[in-house]
Design a protein that fits this description.
By secondary structure, the protein is mainly α. It has nine helices and no strands. The protein is globular, with a radius of gyration of 15 Å.
């Protein structure tokens, strides 16, 4: 089993925390206490600052960040399951605000979270949407990181 980075663990806990909030409408402090009690060893290894930031910022901008994907959808946002919405919102939060994290890392993390928490093929759906948003909001970075084709 591959060892997960503290940043990956933070993102994974953020998915759980945001889901908990959406179901229970509790405070961020209560969410973090819950995550700590139920995921102690993982919580201790996770990057707490990133986890806290992602929970707080994603909840603050949740509807707006999920709506960022509307131009790329063939269905209503309300038809996307909650876990997928959460993963999309976290990815949007990072793409828009964590400019020191490369877009390809954010895309890859979203895919990994979808594989962990989503339905069987949701990672494909997530990949397509996050990639399109990254092309929109980080166009130059995405263009410069495209693999060069040999001629």
């Amino acid at each position: 089993m591959q060892k997960k980075s503290p940043r990956h663990l933070a993102r994974s806990l953020a998915v759980q925390g945001i889901y908990s909030y959406k179901i229970n409408q509790c405070s961020i402090i209560e969410i973090e206490d819950y995550l700590n009690k139920n995921n102690g060893p993982i919580f201790e290894k996770a990057n707490y600052e990133l986890m806290h930031y992602l929970i707080e910022q994603t909840l603050h901008d949740f509807s707006h960040n999920v709506a960022r994907y509307t131009p790329y959808l063939k269905r209503e946002i309300s038809e996307i399951n909650l876990i997928e919405q959460i993963i999309l919102a976290i990815a949007a939060t990072e793409l828009l605000n964590n400019l020191n994290v490369p877009a390809y890392v954010i895309i890859n993390e979203a895919i990994e979270l979808a594989k962990l928490y989503g339905s069987e093929d949701s990672y494909k759906f997530i990949n397509g949407l996050v990639d399109k948003l990254a092309l929109e909001v980080r166009h130059e970075e995405m263009q410069s990181s495209k693999p060069k084709r040999s001629t």
